[in-house]
Design a protein that fits this description.
The complex is a heterodimer of chains A (246) and B (278). Chain A contains eleven helices and five strands. Chain A starts with a helix and ends with a strand. Chain A has a three-stranded antiparallel β-sheet. Chain A has a two-stranded antiparallel ribbon with strand order 1-5. In chain A, helix 1 packs across helix 3, helix 4 packs across helix 5 and helix 9 runs antiparallel to helix 10. Chain B is globular and about 50 Å long. The longest helix of chain B is centred in the C-terminal third of the chain and has 26 residues. Helix content of chain B is 43%, strand content 18%. In chain B, the strands form three sheets. An eight-stranded parallel β-barrel of chain B has the order 1-2-3-4-7-8-9-12, surrounded by four helices. Chain B has a two-stranded antiparallel ribbon with strand order 5-6. Chain B has a two-stranded antiparallel ribbon with strand order 10-11. Chain B is of the alpha/beta class and 278 residues long. Chain B starts with 5 loop residues before the first strand and ends with a helix. Classes of the chains: A alpha+beta (246), B alpha/beta (278).
Chain lengths: 246, 278
C-alpha cells in the first residue's frame, strides 16, 4: 500500500466512523485550538450531513411520514451500510426504497419507490416522442417500440396511495402499479394494470411488439382495446422510437 | 463573447432563468447536475447559454483519488462540454472517492512529490479525454498532513506546470486556508504564475471561532475583497464567479455581488494604469 493510499484510507475511516483512528494524531497536524481529530471531525460532520440531506430532499414524503429525526437516523443507518458508489450524489437514493422496505415498513419502502421514480423521470435524458402518425399499419405488428427513460413504474397499494395523498388517482387494487412520466418539465402519474406495467417494462427492455402485446393481453383481449392502450402510450409521449423488428 | 465576471447557476433561480434568461459575463454550471440528464435542468442551461458564455465546474472527478476515473464520467462530461460549448472545464485539487466509495466532498491532498506525480498523470488522462486543458481549483481545508513536503501553493504550481493544466484560483479558499493553517495569503497569490490562472472564485465563509468554514452562504467578506484586489493587482483581470450555495438569495443579489467584483477589478486596474503613467 502506498503512503497516499494509506492516508486516503485513513481519511475515509476518520470521516465515516464515530471515533477517528489513533493514527490521525500522528498523520495530521494539530494547530491552535483544534486537535487533528477535531479538524477531521469537521469533515465527518459534513459527510453525514450532506448524504442525509440528499436523501431528505429526494424523499420528502417519507420524511413527513416518519418524522425528521427518525428519518435522519434511518438515512444514517442506510448510508452506513450502503456508502455511495456513484459520482452523482442523488444516485445514493436508488437503493433506499428497497432498504427502507426491509428495515422499516414495506409500505414506507413503496412510498419511497414512488418518490424515487418521480425524481428519476424528472431528470431523465431528453428523448423526443414519436407520434401515432409514425405507425405503418402494414408493419406495425412486427415493430419494436422504445419507451423512453422518462417513463417509469412503481408498484402501489391502496395504503401507499393514501400515504402519498394520491387516492384521487383511482383504485390501486385493480390497477396496482403507478406509471410516472415527464411531460414538458412536469411529472405526471396514473395507475395502470400489472399487465400494462409488464408491457412497459418489456418495451423498455427492447422486446418486440408481439411480446409487449402478450403482456397487455393479460388485461384486454379485444384487439381494438389493446390498440387503444398502445395509442395512449403514443399520446402521452411515452414512445420515443418505432422500428421494424429484425 | 469573451468570458468575464458572472455567477454560479443554482436551482433556486431556475424558474426565473428559464423565463427570462441571463445576460452576464460568465455562467458556471456544476457539471454533475447536468451530465446525462435532460428535462428542466438542461433546459435552463440551454436557455442561459443563449446569452452568456458557460463553463463547467465539477465536484466528483477526484483528481487526487486512487480509484480509476470512470470512463462513463469522462464520456458524459465531454458530451456535456460539447453540447453547451463550455469555454473550459474545471474541478478541484482534492480526492473524493476511496475504494469505490464516494464521499461527495472535496477532501484535501497531502502535498508530497508522490501526490504531484499521481495528480499530474491523472490530469493528463482527463485532458486527453476532453481534448483541452483541465482547470483545477484550490480547495478550502481544515486539516494539514504531517507528511506534506511542499506548501499548498508550491504543490498547486508544480502540478499546473508539470501537467500543463490551468488554475481556478478560489480567493476565499486561499483566505480560509491562510487563517486555518496560519500562512500568508498574499505570499500564496504571489507564488502562482499569472499565465496559468484561468478563472477566479469568490464566496462567503463562516467564522466558527476556532476556524473559518467555507460554507458559501454569505456575502464575500471584506478581507477576501482585499485579497481579491491583491490578486487583480498581481495577475491582472481574470473571469470571476460568485459562488453562493447556502441561504441562496435572489438572483439580483448574487448579480450585485458579481458587479462588485467587476467594480473592484476596474478600480485596481485604473489605479495601476495611473501609476504606470509617466
Amino acid at each position: 500500500m502506498s503512503e497516499l493510499q494509506r492516508l486516503q484510507q485513513l481519511f475515509w475511516d476518520a470521516a465515516r466512523n464515530e471515533t477517528a483512528p489513533p493514527e490521525v494524531a500522528v498523520d495530521f497536524v494539530s494547530r491552535g485550538a483544534l486537535s487533528a481529530e477535531a479538524r477531521l471531525g469537521i469533515y465527518r460532520t459534513a459527510y453525514w450531513v450532506r448524504q442525509v440531506s440528499a436523501l431528505r430532499e429526494l424523499f420528502p414524503r417519507v420524511v413527513a411520514l416518519l418524522g425528521d429525526g427518525p428519518f435522519a437516523r434511518a438515512a444514517s443507518r442506510y448510508v452506513g451500510r450502503h456508502p455511495s458508489t456513484s459520482w452523482a450524489l442523488e444516485h445514493l437514493g436508488a437503493g433506499f426504497p428497497a432498504w427502507l422496505a426491509q428495515t422499516e415498513r414495506a409500505p414506507l419502502g413503496a412510498v419511497a419507490a414512488v418518490e424515487w421514480v418521480r425524481f428519476s423521470t424528472f431528470i431523465a435524458p431528453d428523448a423526443p416522442a414519436v407520434g401515432r402518425d409514425a405507425i405503418d399499419p402494414s408493419t406495425f405488428a412486427d415493430a419494436r417500440l422504445t419507451v423512453g427513460p422518462h417513463v417509469a413504474t412503481a408498484p402501489v397499494t391502496p395504503e401507499v396511495l393514501e400515504q402519498l395523498e394520491l387516492t384521487s388517482l383511482g383504485d390501486a387494487t385493480a390497477r396496482p402499479v403507478l406509471a410516472v412520466w415527464r411531460s414538458g418539465f412536469g411529472v405526471l402519474q396514473r395507475l395502470v394494470t400489472r399487465g400494462e406495467a409488464d408491457a412497459l417494462a418489456a418495451a423498455q427492455a427492447g422486446a418486440p411488439l408481439a411480446v409487449v402485446c402478450e403482456h397487455l393481453a393479460c388485461d384486454v383481449s379485444e384487439p381494438e382495446a389493446l390498440f387503444e392502450v398502445l395509442s395512449a402510450w403514443f399520446e402521452r409521449g411515452w414512445v420515443t422510437a418505432l422500428a421494424a423488428a429484425h | 463573447m469573451q468570458p468575464r465576471h458572472g455567477i454560479g447557476l443554482r436551482t433556486q433561480h431556475f424558474a426565473q432563468l428559464l423565463a427570462e434568461g441571463l445576460s452576464v459575463g460568465l455562467v458556471e454550471a456544476i457539471s454533475e447536475n447536468f451530465m446525462g440528464r435532460g428535462g428542466r435542468p438542461l433546459a435552463v442551461l440551454e436557455r442561459v447559454r443563449r446569452d452568456s458564455p458557460v463553463v463547467l465546474h465539477g465536484v466528483s472527478l477526484s483528481i487526487g483519488g486512487l480509484d480509476p476515473i470512470p470512463d462513463e464520467y469522462l464520456r458524459q462530461l465531454a458530451e456535456l462540454r460539447r453540447r453547451v460549448d463550455a469555454a473550459w472545464v474545471s474541478d478541484h485539487f482534492s480526492f473524493g472517492s476511496v475504494r469505490g466509495h464516494a464521499s461527495h466532498d472535496l477532501w484535501p491532498l497531502p502535498f508530497t512529490e508522490e501526490t504531484v506525480r499521481h495528480v499530474v498523470a491523472r490530469v493528463q488522462q482527463v485532458q486527453d479525454a476532453l481534448g483541452q486543458r483541465l482547470v483545477l481549483e484550490n480547495v478550502s481545508s481544515y486539516v494539514e498532513y504531517a507528511s506534506s513536503e511542499l506548501t499548498e501553493w508550491e504543490f498547486v504550481r508544480e502540478v499546473a506546470e508539470r501537467a500543463d493544466c490551468e488554475l481556478l484560483l478560489d480567493v476565499n479558499n486561499v483566505y480560509v486556508n491562510a487563517v486555518n493553517h496560519g500562512f500568508d495569503a498574499k505570499a500564496y497569490l504571489a507564488a502562482l504564475p499569472s499565465r496559468r490562472i484561468r478563472q477566479l472564485h469568490l464566496a462567503g465563509h463562516l467564522d466558527c471561532g476556532t476556524h473559518l468554514f467555507d460554507h458559501h452562504g454569505a456575502p464575500v467578506a471584506d478581507p477576501v475583497w482585499a485579497l481579491y484586489r491583491e490578486c487583480v493587482r498581481l495577475h491582472g483581470p481574470v473571469p470571476t464567479i460568485i459562488e453562493w450555495d447556502e441561504d441562496v438569495p435572489s438572483l439580483e443579489r448574487v448579480l450585485e455581488e458579481s458587479a462588485r467584483a467587476g467594480a473592484v477589478e476596474a478600480e485596481v486596474l485604473a489605479g495601476a494604469a495611473a501609476e504606470a503613467r509617466p
